[in-house]
Amino acid sequence: MKNEKNKVALWSVMAAVFLTSSKLLIGIITGSLGILSEALHSALDLVAALITYISVQISDKPADEDHHYGHGKIENLSAFFETVLLLITCFWIIFEAVNRLISGKTHIEISIWSYVVVATSIIIDFTRSRALRRVAKKYNSQALEADALHFSTDIWSSTVVLIGLIFAQFGFFFADSIAALAVGVIVIYVSYRLGKRAIDVLLDKAPLTTYQVIEKAIKEITEISHFHDIKIRSAGADTFVEVNIHVKPELNIKEAHQIAHKAEEVILKIVERCEVHIHIEPEDNID
């Protein structure tokens, strides 16, 4: 598992190095703000990919004396850092684009390499976002999922830049700056999605869908007369569930334990990589 996660994260880093250097070179040569904004975007993609690569090295380490719930939240912290980096990108892109449109300095030099670097970027981003999404889904990795979402939006932003270059080819140079503004809007949207999910996990917000599914499953266990205080928290790929159940008071310890074990198995079938803690109480002890 760890080798596959490391491999796809390392491939993402290498792709980011290539795209950043090629976009920066062509952007400087042509003066295209669209390509330069994409170069900066890719540079921050590189930092984000490095953060992700480091986080997946740490996240699967087992619990220890200092981290009783393991190291999974390093992935959520990584996703949050990606959000910050994306917002920094966005502010620069929008500022520069608006400045060019106001000043009228929108002229750029178009060459065949402008199209080559943008088209190559689309192909590489499609390939790596697909690979990242597959491994993220397989191992429930938020860091890799954030990278996948990050790079899938790069496809759209690169497409917008490509359209801007085509318009500029026919003398509509302002289209390049407008394309850069569109990239900025896309980045804001991605930042919101990434940031909200990362912060929710870091603040231990219970996932509503998971809560409802677990609640429904426990209700179907007839041996449990009542249950309450379902608590769910996530840390990277791991989920921790706590619940209080009430059973008939005449049951012995072994019988009560078997019911708790049944409830635990039901939850484990619903949630992958889950650790369950069940507290048992007699049914006549309901507040």
Q: Percentage of helical residues? A: over 70%
Biggest sheet: strands, sense, closure?
Answer: 3 strands, mixed
CATH superfamily of the largest domain: Cation efflux protein transmembrane domain
Q: Give the strand order of the largest sheet, numbering strands 1, 2, ... along the chain.
A: 1-2-3
Instruction: Give me the CATH architecture of the largest domain, please.
Output: Up-down Bundle
In angstroms, what is the radius of gyration?
25 Å
Can you tell me the residue ranges where pLDDT is under 50 for at least 5 consecutive residues? none
Assign an overall shape.
Answer: elongated
Contiguous helical run count: 8
Chain-averaged pLDDT: 79
The separation of the N and C termini measures: 45 Å
Our estimate of the beta-strand percent is: 5-15%
The sequence of SSEs as H and E is HHHHHHHEEHE
Q: Regarding quaternary structure, how should these chains be classified?
A: single chain
CATH topology of the largest domain: Alpha-lytic protease prodomain-like
The count of DSSP E runs of length 2 or more, i.e. the number of strands, is 3
Structure class: mainly alpha
Number of domains: 2
